[in-house]
Amino acid sequence: MVNIKELNPEASPRAAFGYRVRSAREGHGWTQDQFGERIGYSGRHVSAIETCHKPPTLRLVRSMDTVLGLAGTVESFERAWIELRNGSLLEGFPEYLSYEARAAEIRLFDVGVIPGLLQTPEYSRAIEEGHVKRGTLTPEQACERVESLAERQAGLVRRVTPMVIVVLDESCIRRLIGGPGVMERQLAHLIEFAEQSNSMLQLAPYTIGERRPFNRLVNLLTLPDRSVMSYVESQTDGHLDREITSVLPLVRAYHQLQAEALSQAASVAMIDEVRKGTSQ
Fold first, then answer.
1. How far apart are CA 239 and CA 95, in angstroms?
2. C-alpha angle 131/57/124, rounded to 5°?
3. 109: closest CA among 208, 211, 216?
4. Model-level pTM?
5. pLDDT at res. 192
6. Cα–Cα–Cα angle for 211, 262, 212, rounded to 5 degrees
7. CATH 3.30.870.10 region(s) of the chain?
8. 135 with 170: CB under 8 angstroms?
9. Radius of gyration of the chain (CA)
10. H helix or E strand, kind and range, residue 51
11. Are 21 and 77 a contacting pair, CB within 8 Å?
């Protein structure tokens, strides 16, 4: 006789999600293997989702929604997945990701840390482990963030690849994250990024001083219909803005920042110089 683990949906948001998956599956009279075959996963993987041993991914929940006829509805598992991730992501960011996934052009600026789209897995894990040590994230939330970032990066591989323009404050390449080895590989990844045909990378050096217009993360998206939106972030809050009157000043400031920043060739040369220093 198969030993069916009893689930407690009150234990955690993830437990409630797993309980709902099991209820939906059993409501159709499917075993875990039968449901897994329909959504493209093994029965063992379905079991791990139901019992909270594995976090659900965007690909998995979209497949479940298709099979269960819930795609695009308020009852969709994708919607529940986004709400689940709100426990480890700032308000406004999940909505931003839905627009980033179809943007024609992505402009990024950050201070002190490499932006997520350009992070290596090692670098990302080091950052999230720091949150866990400080008690600002649980180990489970940290793992979810790393996995979510990998899915976000994979989302840039599309039939029509978006243009990705990045300006980094010099502090991003000089702040040691995860130790010399992790940092050396991260800087090498930045150089590889700059060589791509759909990318542009510049550094805003310390010497521009007060002429740097931003002091925190700023993301700007241009959608296929040419509308523009912004996402800005503080330590505790994220804000998505689609009002043209407030987004346009950020676009102008970004253009001014690019004019003050080093050229891509000079930026790559500086990154390579710092990279060689971390490998010694």
1. 10
2. 30
3. 216
4. 0.70
5. 97
6. 15
7. 93-117+158-278
8. no
9. 21
10. none
11. yes
- Identify residue 134 by its one-letter amino acid code: R
Residue given tokens 């179809």 in the structure block: 102
Quick one: tokens of 136?
């600002």
pLDDT in tens, 69-99: 998 887 888 877 776 665 555 566 777 888 8
State how far the Cα of 229 lies from the Cα of 248, in Å rounded to an integer: 9
Q: Where do runs of H (alpha helix) occur along the chain?
A: 13-27, 32-39, 43-50, 58-68, 77-85, 93-100, 121-134, 139-154, 171-174, 180-194, 244-260, 264-278
Q: Which two tokens stand for residue 202?
A: 């510049």
CATH number of 93-117+158-278: 3.30.870.10
The distance in angstroms from the start CA to the end CA of the chain is: 60
Please return the burial class of 74, using the count of CB atoms within 10 Å of its CB with bins 0-12, 13-18 and 19+: exposed
Strand ranges of the sheet holding 228-233, from the earlier edge strand across to the other edge: 199-204, 163-169, 105-110, 218-222, 228-233, 238-241
**If you classify domain 13-85 with CATH, what class do you get?**
mainly alpha
CA atoms within 13 A on the CB side of 136: 11
Pairing of strands 105-110, 163-169: parallel
Q: What is the Cα–Cα distance from 188 to 132, expressed in whole angstroms?
A: 27
- Beta strand 163-169 pairing with 228-233: unpaired
Q: Is the pLDDT of residue 243 over 50?
A: yes
Position with higher pLDDT, 183 vs 80: 183
Residue intervals of the chain classified under CATH 1.10.260.40 are 13-85
CA-wise closest residue to 94 among 136, 148, 158: 148
Tokens of 135: 């008690």
- Run of H or E including 36: helix 32-39
Q: Which two tokens stand for residue 163?
A: 């243009």
What tokens appear for 266 in the block? 């000079």
